[in-house]
Write a structure and sequence with these properties.
- Helix 3 packs across helix 4.
- The chain contains seven helices and nine strands; from the N terminus they run ββαβββααβαβαβαβα.
- Helix content is 30%, strand content 20%.
- The strands form two sheets. The protein has a seven-stranded mixed β-sheet with strand order 1-3-2-6-7-8-9, sandwiched between helices. A two-stranded antiparallel ribbon has the order 4-5.
Length: 230
């Protein structure tokens, strides 16, 4: 993994003196620019600071060892080969926890800038969503919410021993495409079941799409964020 040359996150504000932050994590092989367009597409009634970090460069086994931006390695030829059997044995636990540390540092920075934890949203697509879920349930305080898009809960067998009970009040918006060929629908749905059984409030949405984000989904996210702020 190469973290030495990792550029700083892209930071955009929708108004002066924001009191809300959204930290948005991209998917495998993309970078922080990937979700910058949502700044103009999600219309909120309050100023927000958006932070779009770049994952470190690392070799990704599932892509023949090609070096790309990734929050963790995927070591199996099929992403759901092991996960659907409920095993964490072949997941890149070290990479997942390294990225957890990166995100925790970004949250700490936002708090230092005066943003209350209850006004911080952790969002992510695919791999980014997996890191968002993994990190949020292990914090020492609840966040304002999690947007977990086309993703799943990594290291699911560790949730009972590693979650912080106080984070059960963190609301979670989960969305998945019914025809997703990359992160199969069943992976997202089973993660929802696991999180719900553990005591988290999951607002579940599914769409007739593949591994992507659609306009209706963004409108649902917009409504969810406005409702939370109200």
């Amino acid at each position: 993994m190469n973290t030495q040359s990792n550029p700083p996150p892209i930071t955009l504000q929708t108004g002066e003196h924001p009191q809300h932050s959204i930290i948005w994590l991209h998917g495998l092989g993309a970078d922080g620019n990937d979700f910058v367009p949502v700044v103009d597409e999600i219309k909120l009634s309050y100023p927000v600071r958006f932070i779009f970090p770049h994952a470190p460069m690392r070799a990704v086994t599932i892509n023949n060892g090609y070096v790309m931006r990734a929050w963790y390695d995927i070591t199996q030829p099929s992403i759901n080969a092991v996960l659907l059997r409920g095993s964490d044995a072949h997941q890149d636990a070290a990479g997942i926890r390294e990225s957890q540390g990166i995100v925790e540092s970004l949250i700490t920075q936002e708090i230092a800038l005066g943003i209350k934890p209850e006004n911080i949203i952790l969002a992510g697509f695919s791999q980014g969503g997996a890191i968002a879920l993994h990190t949020a349930i292990r914090l020492n305080f609840p966040l304002g919410g999690v947007l977990a898009l086309s993703t799943y809960l990594p290291l699911a067998s560790k949730i009972d021993s590693e979650l912080n009970n106080i984070t059960r009040t963190t609301p979670i918006f989960m969305a998945h495409g019914q025809q997703d060929p990359v992160v199969p629908y069943e992976m997202g749905a089973s993660s929802r079941v696991k999180l719900t059984a553990t005591g988290y409030d999951i607002d579940w949405h599914e769409y007739e799409m593949q591994h992507s984000v659609c306009h209706v989904e963004l409108k649902d996210i917009e409504g969810w964020l406005l409702n939370k702020a109200g």
